Amino acid sequence: MLTREFATWILVFVRVGAMLAVVPLFSVDHFPRQIRLATGAIVAFLMVPVLPPVSLSNISLWSLVGVTAQEVTAGLVLGFVCRIAFFAVEMAGSIIANDIGLNMASTLNPMVNSPMAPTSTALYWMGVAIMLSLDLHHVFIAGFQRSYDFLPMGGSHMSEALLHRFVSSTGGIFVSGLQMAAPIMAVTFVITLVFSLLGRAVPQMNVFAESMPVKLVGGMIVFGLTCSLMGEHIINLFHRIPEEMLRFSVLMGQHTS
Known about the structure:
75% of the residues lie in helices and 2% in strands. It has helices at 2-20, 33-47, 61-100, 118-133, 136-150, 160-201, 207-225, 227-253, and strands at 107-109, 114-116. A hairpin with a 4-residue loop joins strand 1 (107-109) and strand 2 (114-116). The two termini are 34 Å apart.
């Protein structure tokens, strides 16, 4: 019995570890690997009592490798679902920076170890603060635990429906990013239209040089005024994550011949 429980713990730990390698905050290079492994081990230890035990005594080595690969795939897919909200936040920040002229002022974000626009960095940290302050990471763990109801250990399969859902979720990143950036895009469009009319009335005016400071100031003012709305949108994205995890679990758990 102890052997079966230990085997169950190993498989759960593999899926949790793969998910933690993708989800925000845990996947950064500066996050201690010891804490990441300890977190995965503790989460797996807490989930083992509520899951049916499995036995690895009667399966071959290649079957064990296949089951492990299936659990790694399931963890990576579930981690991608948790990352979707942050992808949308980064997309919104990039659109805003491009519209108000801050796309050249990229800074290194230590969370993703890559250069990001200042607005993307600000929205990214806002998302991290919201996730931790509202205990939404516990919601992610609850959704991960429920995934075993539809995706048992060793039951992951790739399918056309899963690919379609993956593409649809990826497209939703751009839609969510545009929705968050829509107020700033509208303001910069109006400013561009006004200066275009002024350029026709005063041909000597350098429309590009004169409009950029106005776009920057107007865009930053609207960005500050709409931060609360963006925060609500980010919260809505976070609340959809458990449902998305279950949908992906159902699709991965369906075996199609």
